[in-house]
């Protein structure tokens, strides 16, 4: 049974409190928060004040995904804002191991995100030190994109690497997750499903989360 992490990027920003309440009532496990800076990705989303506000209302684990350059500058700030998991992109970190140590030093779980073009083997020397791999199954920056099929092969490769190294890292899939492909994604080895449009565009988001949870 996968962990379900609805992505707030697809929520109604005029009714954010209501949407957080809905996630609180649902069977969702985490709440996924995408932070974009307009530099690492061609979009700008939200930052620390929104996360701090969500944290005051949310009863779920806050899973924060930094799609930003120089994430190491803000690690302490995101800890103070309430992040439980903090994922940084391997492509944005010159000193990844140090950044992971900083995240752990602030009392958070450390995640590493990888883009669709980034090979799994680049995680070999960090996989034993992290708690989560956020595998992008679309190109980062925008919600509502289609799942890239090659991701299934990468999930299997990552699962093999985790097993081989004895890592405890969870595999999170972010992008294009639907009710139709969720079963295949979980069968390939995923632990956590990020779902944005699939949840928030559903006529009954709570029921949709229950369906995804039952995969």
UniProtKB/TrEMBL annotation:
UniProt GO BP: pentose catabolic process; pentose-phosphate shunt
Cofactors (names): Zn(2+); Fe(2+); Co(2+); Mn(2+)
UniProt keyword Metal-binding present: yes
Record's cofactor remark: Binds 1 divalent metal cation per subunit.
Active-site residue numbers: 34, 174
Catalytic activity reported: D-ribulose 5-phosphate = D-xylulose 5-phosphate
Binding of substrate, residues: 7, 65, 141-144, 174-176
EC number, UniProt record: 5.1.3.1
Residues where a divalent metal cation binds: 32, 34, 65, 174
InterPro entries associated with the record: Aldolase_TIM, Ribul_P_3_epim, Ribul_P_3_epim-like, RibuloseP-bd_barrel
Keywords attached to this entry: Carbohydrate metabolism, Cobalt, Isomerase, Manganese, Metal-binding, Zinc
GO-annotated molecular function: D-ribulose-phosphate 3-epimerase activity; metal ion binding
Pathways involved: Carbohydrate degradation
Alphabetical list of Pfam families matching this protein: Ribul_P_3_epim (PF00834)
Recorded GO CC terms: cytoplasm
Keyword Isomerase recorded: yes
Function: Catalyzes the reversible epimerization of D-ribulose 5-phosphate to D-xylulose 5-phosphate.
Family: Belongs to the ribulose-phosphate 3-epimerase family.
PANTHER family: RIBULOSE-5-PHOSPHATE-3-EPIMERASE
Name of this protein: Ribulose-phosphate 3-epimerase
Organism: Taibaiella chishuiensis
């Amino acid at each position: 049974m996968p962990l379900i992490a609805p992505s707030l990027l697809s929520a109604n920003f005029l009714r954010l409190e209501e949407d957080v309440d809905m996630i609180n009532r649902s069977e969702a496990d985490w709440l996924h928060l995408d932070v974009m800076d307009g530099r690492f990705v061609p979009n700008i989303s939200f930052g620390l004040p929104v996360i701090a506000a969500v944290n005051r209302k949310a009863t779920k684990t806050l899973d924060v995904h930094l799609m930003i350059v120089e994430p190491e500058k803000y690690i302490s700030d995101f800890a103070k804002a309430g992040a439980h998991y903090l994922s940084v992109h391997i492509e944005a970190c010159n000193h990844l191991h140090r950044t992971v140590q900083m995240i752990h030093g602030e009392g958070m779980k450390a995640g590493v995100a990888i883009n669709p073009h980034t090979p799994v083997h680049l995680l070999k020397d960090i996989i034993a030190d992290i708690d989560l791999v956020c595998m992008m199954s679309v190109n980062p920056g925008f919600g509502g994109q289609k799942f890239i099929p090659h991701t299934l092969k990468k999930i299997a490769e990552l699962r093999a690497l985790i097993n081989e190294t004895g890592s405890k890292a969870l595999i999170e899939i972010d992008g294009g997750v639907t009710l139709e492909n969720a079963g295949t994604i979980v069968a390939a080895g995923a632990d956590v499903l990020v779902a944005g449009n699939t949840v928030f565009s559903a006529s009954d988001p709570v029921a949709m989360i229950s369906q995804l949870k039952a995969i």
